[in-house]
Structure formats: structure tokens, C-alpha cells
Amino acid sequence: MASSGKYLLIGMAAGAVAGLLLAPDKGENTRKVLKDKFNQSAQDIGPEIQHFSKQVNTLLDKVNAFMQEYKEAKSSQMVSESQPNQ
Known about the structure:
The protein is mostly helical and 86 residues long. It is built from 2 helices and no strands. It has helices at 2-22, 27-82. The longest helix is centred in the middle third of the chain and has 56 residues, at 27-82. The termini are far apart.
């Protein structure tokens, strides 16, 4: 997903630049067309961005849980090492 989204954005930017450079229409009309196409593209990729955001949040939750478990294990290890051997 991340790769296809990146290529989509690169393609949109390249298309916008090409459109401005090669536009046979008035600047005002060209800007309106580009704005409309950009808005439509943003709506089209919105769900993909939301899905990606959810995946990142899930991954961060897992990393945070792992780090918490690691800290607790390290803390227990330090406590047991600090107690004298009997």
C-alpha cells in the first residue's frame, strides 16, 4: 500500500507540472481543472491513507506493549540480581 500510494502522489505531481507547462487553456481555467482533479484524487486515496494510519497505530501499540514488557522484565531481573544469594 505505501509503495502504490507514493507512486500515485508522484504521478499526481508530475501530471500537475506537465499540465501547467503544456496547458493550452487560460491559467485560471487550468488552475480550476488541476484543483478539481487534485480534490478528486485526494478523495480517492483518503480511504487508503486511513487504512495505512490504522496499520501504523496498531504497530505502534504492539511496539509500546513490547517495550513495557521489556521494561518490566528488566526491572524484575535487576531486583533479583540485587538480592543476595542465600
